[in-house]
Amino acid sequence: MAKTDGQANDTSTLGYEQARDELVEVVRRLEAGGTSLEESLALWERGEELAKVCRRWLEGARARLDAALAESGAEDAEGADTGERAGGAGADGA
């Protein structure tokens, strides 16, 4: 089940789950043994590329989460500031 060089190097269209599943298969094949040195090296290289794809997807997801949390935090802080000012003005006026 060897891949051609074009297939082995084309990771740009893989989604996270696809890359992860293929990486699991690569690891399984390497752990099972019985492959030639050349095939083992090719599998290792493919695994490295797949790991990079997974890492990019996860880093992108982390950046999106951080941005959403920062936006949510800014909105919360803005609402708290408005509430404090309104509450403070009421307390001072009483």
What are the salient characteristics of this protein?
rod-shaped, 94 residues, disordered N terminus, mainly alpha, 84% helix
Order of helices and strands: HHH
Poorly predicted runs of 5 or more residues = 1-7
Share of helix among residues?
A: over 70%
Instruction: Provide mean pLDDT, rounded.
Output: 83
Distance between the termini: 80 Å
Radius of gyration: 25 Å
Class inferred from helices and paired strands: mainly alpha
- DSSP strand count: 0
How much of the residues is beta strand, in percent?
under 5%
Number of distinct helices: 3
What is the general shape?
A: rod-shaped
Main sheet characteristics: none
Describe this structure in words.
Helices cover 84% and strands 0% of the residues. With 94 residues, the protein is mainly alpha-helical. α2 packs antiparallel against α3. The radius of gyration is 25 Å and the shape is rod-shaped. The N and C termini lie far apart (80 Å). The N terminus is likely disordered.
